[in-house]
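User: Structure please.
Assistant: Input sequence and predicted structure:
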Amino acid sequence: MNKAKLFVISGPSGVGKGTICKEVITNIPNVQISVSATTRLPRSGDVEGETYFFKSAEQFYQMIKNGELLEWATYNGNRYGTPIWGINNMLERGISVILEIDTQGALQVKEKVQDAILIFIAPPSFEELSARLKGRATESDEEIERRIDAASGEIELQSEYDYVVINDDLKTAVREVEEIFKGVLSE
């Protein structure tokens, strides 16, 4: 039996991380996505406990204070973090875990979990990333600009990752990420 692993997938907002992760958990057995906690307000279609655990600023602070988070970061004015209990529960049951998190969190995980596998999803260009964010129609133009600005700093950190996959074509990117998973899980 293969040992469960912790995978971290990150990259700029709008690069396709969520779509890639959904494909991976559909096509690779015994892999699940961790549910993060956040202080951001729910968007249309968000489901408590599935999309995120939505927390007040005070609740999130208590999670930090109590050491309940593997990692946490502030992104665009909101806090995001990974509850440790969820990760441990899945790994103990032999289920590999995907953390779909930002680069700040990914680097925290890399420090704490030496055998975590970090995968960076990169856009083919900033122009394409901007078009994808605008196409989602979930943020204001000001918010999109903030996300584009954040993306340049995130892209600079891709050398800290074990793998970089450019999402120029979604099917190709999904296949490349799945090959990484298969390779790591067969070791």
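The mean pLDDT is 89.
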